[in-house]
Amino acid sequence: MLKTGDQAPAFEALDQNGNTITLADLLSQGKRIILYFYPKDNTPGCTAEACSLRDGYAELLQEGFMVVGVSGDSAASHQRFIAKHQLPFTLLVDADHTLAQAYGTWGEKKMMGRTYMGMIRTTYIIAPDGTIEHLFQKVNTKDHFGQILEWYRGQNR
To answer: Which residue in 46, 82, 125, 139 is the catalytic one?
Structure first.
């Protein structure tokens, strides 16, 4: 798992529209990046998290953030998820888990006594210089944008 102060791993991935997005492209915009990894489109926790980020999107933009989600779902699935919930941000396709592995968010999970490999819900805040400024491993899916703003405003008082 990466930690605060580490350089964010470079990546190249397709977004929901099939466009290639790189970390360098995102960093060139000079904003903090909320790079959030989530297990699956249209599941209860993932929908709550995405909708929280959607509901707080204007405020996050105002504070200088951009939001980018990552899951193993297809571009078509991401398009449906975005349309259904009016998500205003980019979702990246990580079908082969390359991006999740680079960020340490692909690993062993347990549910109902079953062990399996899956996406570990994690959010990285990447500073404009490409370093990891903060990470959330215990994500409050219902108020994730509030969780991020609380951390950010606590850092900048």
So the answer is: 46
